[in-house]
Design brief:
The chain has helices at 28-33, 51-63, 96-108; strands at 2-3, 26-27, 42-48, 68-73, 86-92. It has 109 residues and is of the alpha+beta class. It folds into two domains: 2-38, no CATH class; 42-108, Alpha-Beta Plaits (2-Layer Sandwich), CATH 3.30.70.790. The strands form two sheets. Strands 3-5-4 form a three-stranded antiparallel sheet, with helices on one face. It is elongated, with a radius of gyration of 18 Å. It binds zinc ion. The site of zinc ion has 7 residues, from loops.
Length: 109
């Protein structure tokens, strides 16, 4: 079963190029040998109560070529005084090491 390592779509036998992104398809069994290729797991690397703080880190990471996403868990069913929602910074598993080093460097300044 050919799959696109970029989109993670599966295609029927006979298709060799992903119609979506023009990436040459690989066999699904081949893909499993390189788990980082389809590793879409996001890992929590930083939390803060300060959304601006996390947003700045995200921008820093992205300018360093590390994809990051911010998750703000606002629980409206649990109203708290002030803004106590935890803001989470997530990066992809393959970027965790670089991201942690980067955050450490930014935070030590
Ligand atoms: Zn594709």
């Amino acid at each position: 079963m050919p799959v696109c390592p970029n989109c993670n779509y599966e295609y029927v036998e006979g298709i060799v190029i992903c119609p979506d992104c023009n990436t040459p398809l690989v066999d699904a069994s081949e893909l499993k040998k390189y788990p980082e290729l389809n590793e879409e797991d996001w890992v929590l690397v930083y939390t803060s109560f300060n959304l601006i703080d996390v947003d700045m880190l995200k921008e820093n990471l992205e300018s360093a070529g590390i994809g990051a996403t911010v998750l703000s868990q606002k629980d409206s069913s649990f109203p708290a005084p002030g803004d106590l929602s935890v803001v989470k910074l997530m990066v992809k598993k393959i970027d965790v090491h670089a991201a942690l080093e980067f955050i450490q460097e930014v935070k030590s300044k």
